[in-house]
Amino acid sequence: MNTLSTPTIQPQTLTKIGVIGGGQLAWMMGMEAASLGVSLFVQTPHTTDPAVAFASETILAAIDDATATAKLATRCDVITFENEFVDLNALSKLAEQGACFRPRLQALSLLLDKYDQLSYLEKIGLPVPAFQLLTAENNQTIDHNLGYPVVLKACRYGYDGQGTFIIKNPEELSQTWAKFNYPPMLLQKFVPFERELAVIAARSVTGEVVVYPIVETVQKNQVCHRVIVPANINKTLSEQIEAIAKTLLNSLQVIGVFGIELFLTSEGELLVNEIAPRTHNSGHFSLDACETSQFKQHLRAVSGLPLGNTALNCSGAVMVNLLGFETANSDYSQKRQKIAEIPNTFIRWYGKTASRPGRKLGHVTVLIHTENDQNIEQEAKTIADKIESFWYS
């Protein structure tokens, strides 16, 4: 296994945690902070950003403002990330001056560019779809050997389907690439998967790795709509995914929570699609369905505490994202009230002040209690259908 060298870290509980980013992921960290006795210091551009409500102090600045991060570092013992929209070169100078980042910047530098990420995954022996880098120099005639359809991805800053395109033919590839003025972009072989899977894993300062129940995600237009937990897969596949998670986190020698998205092909082959070096939408169910949520786990990891139990506290669960379906200013209280009447329901509303199509405004988790595990998947789908009928009606 290829690993990155890292200095030995002695376990030490850190109580002042800085978070770069103030959206819903940081907000959910904030929900869990008080129970661990830690304080959050948030760098985010707007006073209305969700995490401001839980922050001990907010530094109002853009996410990639390294001067603001230098100020954040003076307030905190350790700095972590809500998203990947950061300037690693500038942050590296702060690290040289003593700022502590978890996960470490050397590991993030291998993952933030999607082409670099797949190259690293391939290097450490993890299964990935065939891919190549599309550049003006090596693809002047836009010729490649991945076939059509093919997936075109922005190398940086794409999320929730933004910067990802399913391309049907060479003409469409040329036209789409031209819209971005021909930057280097990732070309990835289109995988006609049977289902999409995901797993959350965490690694501590002592090198302990824990893995959450594997889930099935349901995407529409490259945006996650629902998550079913646990995924209806066999023990062999579960063990393979756990091994992938442990190989990745140990190879990177990281501290914190990571999200791993995978394809399961009709032939039963697993392929790693993308890595999120942070808490992830596929793990939101853990707030209400697990002994230790992914957000509390992340805080435990970066603060130096032992990792918590990842077990479910129920037979299964389904998480449904409440996505914006119109451009409006509304809290959709009537729709949320109707959803809340479903038994064993937990609604997390992020408090965002504006809705727009596809924006994540909140999520709903419904716990499933049954003695027959074979019923979980169908019950989860029935519940998710009901929630979406209420929300999008």
UniProtKB/TrEMBL annotation:
Source organism of this protein record: Planktothrix serta PCC 8927
Presence of keyword Protease: no
**Which residues does the UniProt record annotate as the domain ATP-grasp?**
118-303
Q: In which pathway does it act?
A: Purine metabolism; IMP biosynthesis via de novo pathway; 5-amino-1-(5-phospho-D-ribosyl)imidazole-4-carboxylate from 5-amino-1-(5-phospho-D-ribosyl)imidazole (N5-CAIR route): step 1/2
Signal sequence region: none
Q: What cellular component GO annotations does this protein have?
A: cytosol
Q: Which UniProt keywords apply?
A: ATP-binding, Decarboxylase, Ligase, Lyase, Nucleotide-binding, Purine biosynthesis
What's this protein's name? N5-carboxyaminoimidazole ribonucleotide synthase
InterPro entries, alphabetically? ATP-grasp, ATP-grasp_carboxylate-amine, ATP_grasp_subdomain_1, PreATP-grasp_dom_sf, PurK, PurK_C, PurT/PurK_preATP-grasp, Rudment_hybrid_motif
**Highest taxon above the source species:** Bacteria
Q: State its Enzyme Commission number(s).
A: 6.3.4.18
UniProt xrefs under SUPFAM superfamilies: Glutathione synthetase ATP-binding domain-like, PreATP-grasp domain, Rudiment single hybrid motif
**Reported function:** Catalyzes the ATP-dependent conversion of 5-aminoimidazole ribonucleotide (AIR) and HCO(3)- to N5-carboxyaminoimidazole ribonucleotide (N5-CAIR).
Give the first-level EC class, as a single word: ligase
User: Which chain regions cross the lipid bilayer?
Assistant: none
